[in-house]
Write a structure and sequence with these properties.
The complex is a heterodimer of chains A (about 140) and B (about 375). Chain A is mainly beta. Chain A is built from two helices and eight strands. In chain B, strand 10 and strand 11 form a beta hairpin. Chain B is globular and about 55 Å long. Classes of the chains: A mainly beta (about 140), B alpha/beta (about 375).
């Protein structure tokens, strides 16, 4: 069940950055961030360009969710991680294709396109980027 | 700017108040605070209500007019203030500004949250709205989960053991025993904390502030109104500051420091013209054990990575160097989110008035209340001095 209103346009308008790893790079202070936005969160500059972020990175920290929000009920336990991409940009995403007992800090991961949540029983399905361990 | 005083405090006990509604809680707290101040309803000129989630939990917004109607003071200026778990702190700040500016002489700063109406899943959904819905809540992280990311990073970065951080919960429970407003008036052992169920690894249930209902109110007044009180009934607000940080952890360079705490703290010290060492008691926002440790560091009481040592060495006890969370903190006094900032103010004022009972710190003169919204997206610091 959703705890807030279903909306197709709310998901639709984010599709560009939710479906792809497109971040912003600040032309003034050189910072990169995900997702893209028109103003730099660090220096406030409005001179921002879109940048394709690397699809590989490293797990900086993670948690295993046992008591989830309603939208993720019955999917527990699952892993949410803080990932540092190869260029240093960070993102929070689910870590998939790995057992909760085998996940470890520092593992190398790569982006994959996956299902996240549904807007109730008859609403749209929201997709986005998750990360999976890169196998040796 | 005019001087501002706290001349009345009142709150409901925190708990699962099945028989009381959101509006009942607000009315009860305001009544108690007004009684404590000996002022009348007609003296109230403005009301600022801290609340995070009444929309999603009760289907109710427009709390300013709702409260004015049910308390019987229609006509006053009244509004809800929201900054996630720092809603109470920002409501207090607005009330402070309203008196300091010269606009009003008697103002109510209130906080309320009624959480037990929802099941844990729905309340978990409501709480993660403190972060970015499209890029963080979307991932399925709970609010506890975000703090778990900080926790794991902290332990790894500074090589600190889980049990040394979890001690914070034991500390809070010990002091809640003597607080009649506290949700859990029961001591716990470290073993109980470490063996409680995992909510979001590594955070255990007994390291997380509980879900609860409560409302708290304080009456702020100008010097002119304050003149009619004996000085032992008054506490002066010597600083009130609010600072923000980048909303989400992944956009911050360092996730084990809450920059908004540092900023708000600097502003508050400057405004009050006191030094860190002048602060006698602290109420900090330990929604999770790890946050208690980090706040001690970010406020300047410990070096980065060493906040847990203050807990371990007994320095945050009643007779320690920096007595902290002497009424039970968020873990055991309770954390009805939008009300917490005001409960903290009440805890500090109670101590400064010398009404802390068994938990009273000897000769406490200056106290600090820190209220945090989200994972540090908003931090408020309020400083008080006994007259």
């Amino acid at each position: 069940m959703n705890t807030f209103i279903n909306s197709v346009p709310r998901s639709w308008r984010e599709r560009k950055y939710k479906y792809r790893l497109i971040g912003g790079i600040c032309k003034k202070c050189n910072a990169t961030f995900y997702p893209y936005r028109g103003s730099c969160p660090y220096c406030g500059s409005d001179d921002i360009e879109e940048v394709n972020l690397p699809k590989k990175g490293r797990l900086i920290s993670y948690t295993i969710i046992y008591s989830p929000p309603s939208e993720f009920r019955l999917k527990q336990p699952y892993i949410v991680g803080l990932i540092e991409l190869e260029d240093g940009t960070r993102i929070i995403a689910q870590i998939t294709d790995v057992d909760v007992n085998e996940v470890k800090d520092g593992i190398e991961v790569e982006a994959v396109f996956r299902r996240y949540r549904e807007q109730g029983a008859d609403g749209i399905i929201e997709y986005g980027i998750k990360f999976r361990p890169i196998s040796d | 700017m005019r001087r501002v005083y706290v001349c009345g405090i009142g709150a409901t006990p925190i708990g699962e108040h099945w028989e009381l509604s959101l509006r009942d809680l607000m009315v009860l707290a305001a009544k108690k605070a007004l009684e404590d101040s000996t002022l009348t309803k007609r003296d109230i000129e403005a009301v600022y209500i801290g609340n995070m989630s009444s929309g999603i939990l009760q289907g109710q917004e427009h709390l300013g007019s709702l409260f004015a109607t049910w308390f019987g003071i229609p006509g006053v200026s009244a509004q809800k203030c929201e900054a996630a778990c720092a809603s109470g702190g920002v409501a207090f700040h607005q009330a402070f500004l309203a008196v300091a500016s010269g606009m009003y002489d008697v103002v109510v700063a209130m906080g309320v949250e009624k959480m037990s109406d929802g099941n844990t899943y729905d309340v978990t959904s409501a709480l993660i709205m403190a972060d970015d819905q499209e890029y963080v809540a979307f991932t399925g992280s709970s609010f506890v989960g975000l703090n778990a990311l900080i926790y794991r990073r902290y332990m790894e970065k500074f090589n600190v053991k889980h049990e040394d951080i979890a001690m914070f919960a034991v500390h809070d429970h010990k002091y809640a025993v003597n607080n009649p407003l506290a949700q859990y008036r029961k001591a716990v052992t470290l073993e109980t904390v470490l063996n409680s169920p995992i909510v979001a690894d590594p955070l255990r249930l007994f390291e997380c502030a509980p879900i609860g209902d409560g409302a708290a109110a304080v009456i702020l007044c100008s010097e002119e109104v304050a003149k009619k009180y004996k000085s032992d009934r008054l506490v002066e607000v010597i600083a009130s500051s609010v600072a923000t940080d980048i909303l989400s952890l992944h956009n911050r360079k360092d996730i084990v420091t809450l920059n908004a705490t540092k900023l708000a703290m600097n502003k508050a010290l400057k405004m009050s013209k006191i030094d860190l060492k002048d602060i006698d008691i602290v109420e900090l926002h330990d929604a999770f054990t790890i946050l208690g440790v980090i706040h001690l560091e970010d406020m300047g009481f410990a070096e980065k990575g060493k906040g847990w040592m203050l807990v371990k060495d007994g320095e945050i006890e009643k007779d320690g160097k920096i007595p902290t969370n002497l009424m039970g903190g968020l873990k055991a006094r309770g954390h009805p989110v939008g009300a917490t900032g005001i409960y903290e103010v009440i805890d500090v004022v109670t101590q400064l008035r010398g009404e802390g009972g068994r938990n009273q710190v000897d000769d406490a003169e200056i106290g600090l209340a820190q209220n945090v919204g989200g994972v540090g997206g908003t931090v408020t610091i309020n400083l008080f001095r006994r007259l």
